[in-house]
Amino acid sequence: QGQLVESGGGLAQPGGSLRLSCAASGFPFSSTLMTWARQTPEKGLEWVSRIKSDGSATWYVDSVKGRFTISRDNIKNTLTLQMNSLKPEDTALYYCVSQSLRYWGQGTPVTISS
After folding, report:
1. How far, in Å, CA of 69 to CA of 82, rounded?
2. Closest Cα to residue 78, out of 10, 5, 23?
3. Could you give the CA distance from residue 93 to residue 20 in angstroms, rounded to a whole number?
4. What is the secondary structure of 44-111 as a DSSP string?
5. Consecutive H or E run containing 38
6. Which of these, 70, 72, 78, 92, lies nearest to 12 by C-alpha position?
7. For residue range 12-46, what is the model confidence (pLDDT) as tens digits?
8. 9, 49, 60, 110 from 52: Cα distances, Å
9. CA–CA distance, 102 with 11 (Å, rounded to integer)
10. How confident is the model at residue 93 (pLDDT cuts 50, 70, 90)?
11. Is 5 helix (H, G, I), strand (E, B) or coil?
């Protein structure tokens, strides 16, 4: 059974940075497209960024382009989201999600506030 475990969330000031990590196990991570999503009560679920299984292509929602960077390590089975120039509107519960939405992490909270 696949498992995803996020870490790295927390409180940061506007303009600051956070680095989210997602540890994957129990499924063929290196051949799986992976996605970061976020959820708030106000906006619901939003797809934030996606990366192909080999890391050769990425996608970002417009609101995070130029600020967030998705990456992966297929040896360590980890997915990362580097978040810079954070804004209050980035506040959300962040999830890593496997291809076809089969596996979800428990979420890691990110709060951007001064």
Report:
1. 5
2. 23
3. 11
4. EEEEEEEE-TTSS-EEE-GGGTTTEEEEEETTTTEEEEEE-S--GGG-EEEEEEEGGG--B---EEEE
5. strand 34-40
6. 92
7. 999 999 999 999 999 999 999 999 999 999 999 99
8. 23, 10, 12, 24
9. 29
10. very high
11. strand
Classified as helix, coil or strand, 30 is helix
Measured distance CA(47)–CA(61) in Å, rounded: 7
- For residue 2, give both structure tokens: 């696949």
pLDDT in tens, 94-108: 999 998 889 999 999
Neighbours of 80 (CB within 10 A): 18
Which token pair is 102? Answer: 């089969």
Amino acid in the structure at residue 19: R
Question: Please, are residues 23 and 78 in contact by the beta-carbon 8 Å criterion?
Answer: yes
